């Protein structure tokens, strides 16, 4: 359980790591309301922590300049959160990150009380994180450099290897970085192609930040853009199926990276581009709902063959 004392200390940690934070931002980070944040600030002020209150449109809270406390001990919940996070990062395909992770884990274990250390060690030893490990790894300087450029809205010069093995140089406006389905990507406006493109970070040889700045499109979110783009990549078969279920139910059953969904008076239209009709037929049956295949006609034939196969197996098992 996350006790109020832990949240009060978390406020102090946040203010030490940032020059200034607003009340709404602190409330969001701590998952409390702004009135509770004001109470936490008062508690810290009463024990002598010099927190200054800034009034006005851009108001908030900040520590008096030059004030620093030694690093605080981790609470049990903080140690657990760090352990879980480090376990996940190990599976995310960042090159040469393992020594840093092991070093961080050793530091966490060193400051833990004796009664807490075995619990954290049990999680470290026994937890299996089910994240698809990529077959290629991204270089940490590439990940860090592009993330910084995206944060500062500065253009970046890439040396990029295409899927055909060609190396090109191009200037892009990086909008952000995302890890999806075991791979790292950046999305941005490519000045070579004059359009928004997706780039795999493991194919980037060099990334040099430029002085030129850009304006990020408002409300642009990298991960949804990547998922929709991957689902729209042309394949052998273009599939269109009417699912007789509500849109929310369809979203819970159909992975976003597999297909796009569109509201329809009779239900939801599923659009997908796939290589294997037999796989799609089995997937549709597994949705456990009525559906109408609009195209291709070959999918209907595949579904009939699958039904015959299932009927034969059921008959064979009953004999």
Walk me through this protein's architecture.
By secondary structure, this protein is α+β, with helices and mostly antiparallel strands. The chain folds into four domains: 4-63, Arc Repressor Mutant, subunit A; 77-126; 140-228, Roll (SH3 type barrels); 232-316, Alpha-Beta Plaits (2-Layer Sandwich), CATH 3.30.70. Helix content is 42%, strand content 25%. It has helices spanning 4-17, 23-30, 34-46, 76-89, 98-111, 117-126, 140-152, 222-231, 247-253, 277-286, 297-318; strands at residues 51-54, 60-63, 154-161, 167-180, 183-190, 195-200, 204-213, 237-243, 260-264, 267-274, 291-295. A five-stranded antiparallel beta sheet has the order 6-5-4-3-7. Strands 9-10-8-11 form a four-stranded antiparallel beta sheet. Strand 4 and strand 5 form a beta hairpin. It is globular. It starts with a helix and ends with a helix. The mean pLDDT is 85.
Number of domains: 4
**Can you count the beta strands?**
11
Spatial extent as radius of gyration: 26 Å
Molecular shape: globular
Name of the CATH class of the largest domain: Mainly Beta
- Overall structural class, as computed from helix and strand content, comes to alpha+beta
CATH architectural name of the largest domain: Roll
Strand content: 15-25%
Quaternary organisation: single chain
Helix coverage percent of residues? 40-55%
Number of helical segments? Answer: 11
Low-confidence stretches: none
> N-to-C SSE series?
HHHEEHHHHEEEEEHEHEEHEH
